[in-house]
Amino acid sequence: MENAVIQIVLKILGTLGLPIMNWWREKNRRSRSEHWVMATGQLRYAKLDNMERWHLYRASIAYAYSVNGQNYPGLQEVYFAWKTMGDQYVSILHAGMTLTVRYDPVNPINSVLLMADQPMLSQHPH
């Protein structure tokens, strides 16, 4: 019984808090990368993991991009309280699809994906 109560509390907190956290992280990425350079990248994979301990889900989006002939990897994570929401999010992402990546011109290994830079994804929840 106690475990079921904990699961319900985590779902409620996740349902309320994770969209705010995801929005905040996107806002911080946008602020940090405002003057960064844009490059074309490719999606390597998008997968949804069950974070069993917390009864939450993590979408991992792996991508790659090149700067001056050097290849770089990138990884971004988005969190969900409900599996159906996470499944919906990753279902629009397909390996090999073209993405716009922002990278730090001083240190190109630092990069972000902004949903506003992805017109084919911007109307979907994040």
Short structural summary:
The protein has helices spanning 2-32, 83-91, and strands at residues 37-51, 56-67, 70-80, 98-103, 111-112.
> What's the pLDDT, averaged over the residues?
88
Radius of gyration: 16 Å
Number of helices: 2
Subunit organisation of the chains:
single chain
Total tally of structural domains: 1
Net shape: elongated
Structural class per helix/strand content?
alpha+beta
Q: pLDDT under 50 segments (min length 5)?
A: none
- Strand order of the main beta sheet, please? 3-2-1-4-5
Separation of the first and last Cα atoms: 33 Å
Quick one: how many beta strands?
5
The helix-strand sequence is HEEEHEE
Percent of residues in beta strands: 35-45%
Please give the largest β-sheet.
5 strands, antiparallel
Fold topology:
Layout lengths: L1 H31 L4 E15 L4 E12 L2 E11 L2 H9 L6 E6 L7 E2 L14
Antiparallel strand pairs: 1-2, 1-4, 2-3, 4-5
